[in-house]
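Kindly inspect this chain:
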Amino acid sequence: MINTGTQMDLEVKGVAATSRSQIQPFFGRKKPLQQRWTSESWTNQNSCPPVVPRLDLGSLVDSDDEDQNTIPENLPAPTDKYKLKYQQSKTEIKESYKQYSQRNAENTKSNVTHKQSPRNKIDEKCVQDEEANTDDLTTLDRKALLQEGYADNPCDKQQRARKLDAEIVAAEKKKQIVAEQVMIDHLSRAVISDPEQNLAIEQKESDHILPDSKMTPLRFRKRTLHETKIRTHSTLTENVLSHKLQFDGRIVSRNGRDACRELIGFFFTHDQSLTIYEYRQFGKNRTNVLPFIQKSIYNHQCGRRKGKQYRLGDFYVGATLTFFSSDHLSLPESIKENTLLKLRITNIDQIALDSLKTASMEQEDDIIIQETNDRLVFKAIQDVLKEKLHKRGVRILTGLGKYFQQLDKEGNGLLDKADFKQALKVFHLEVSEKDFESAWLILNDNGNGKVDYGEFKRGIIGEMNEYRKSYVRKAFMKLDFNKSGSVPIINIRKCYCAKKHSQVISGHSTEEEIKSSFLETLKVACSKSDEVSYGEFEDYYEGLSIGIVDDEDFVNILRTPWGI
């Protein structure tokens, strides 16, 4: 108990301008109390009301000094994470204000109403989208470039080496299975061990004669060895078929089911023929190998070599083989919809190629020189556009894909020269008239005035090499469980893993933030809001590939989040 007679030395620190009901007086002491005293506790312990001391204005402390005393001395400095978030929010506020001011400026302009053709409407919409995308360049492209954070991730070298060894073993096993099937298909013979027995059976089947009860059954007859003459149309032997070049291929198509088919081909030097087989895997253990292109002698169907027979010099990584789909009745219906079947060589047996080239000693002709000049024309255009696409490749390539699909009313993938010129203008891809005409003469080899927009985009902008594209196909095949050619967005969200992103590891971003950024930029490329096609998936990584120099960095961007 505190004696009421004891003189209390109280010092008023400050008075708050609040209502009387909210006032909680605070009394300071020279020696701090161990117990916190309030007006209620004071009333409970003392029957007499407390004596209120006189207000000494001279003892009041300045507000600045008071604030300095109340701030802890050991307050930690703000982390880099909060600094980054502050800068991002500051940038976004500036960008949003810039967009708002630009929209207001556009609204003040006079609007002239006039009739528009369907192409003009599409162009106006795409121009508006492109202008909006230009305004959002910092935000959208920065989110797309976040995927490069996987390239900086220090991956376990031993684990990567084990995965690579397993992939090599699986690839060699697959090639061996296909090679054995090819030899079986072309060397197997139907041999009759007893010609008389075969004739007797054929006669009974034709005459419908019941078996004679007095005749000895076939299973009890005495079988003896005899000479048999085999008549076949082919004179192939294992030694002849051993002089072959084996290569891997893929179908050039935006259809995911066709683009992900695993094709293995063989070119035979003894008669300049070729055949292509499809390798199918069902589950982990069941596989099947079926002929895709029958063994025969084929010619080029387009390009500088149109009408010329395939020869050894036409086979290299990146080469395109063309066939008429109508000549192969066993092809899938989705492939028969197109007049030409285009196959791209993705890998080749380089040792066998060098050995066969030394033996054949083919001479370089004028066509090879012309094709080299064509590649130089495309490379000059690609170098001009490369700087513009370096940081904006994802947005521009995905936008081009959607724009071409809108112009393709017939759905055959063919557009005319005016459409391509307008597309380059809409997306601000400046190509000189001379370079454009040179490229058009190369692409429009059949002279009908229309070109496949996939070929146009690959020629003008370029494409990633086959090593990179093989991992894009692996990632899509893992996502496409039903082999339908399109993947729902919900499956992509489930399979995408951002745990090993560099910003997640450092603590600057969360997994959900990285995943949301990826899905947001991917949805921009999609024509449907709930699914992604193979062509759209490929366009996204095609644009991302432009700004990445090293192949292994690009492979890590695919391998790490998708677990391939």
The longest strand covers residues 286-296.
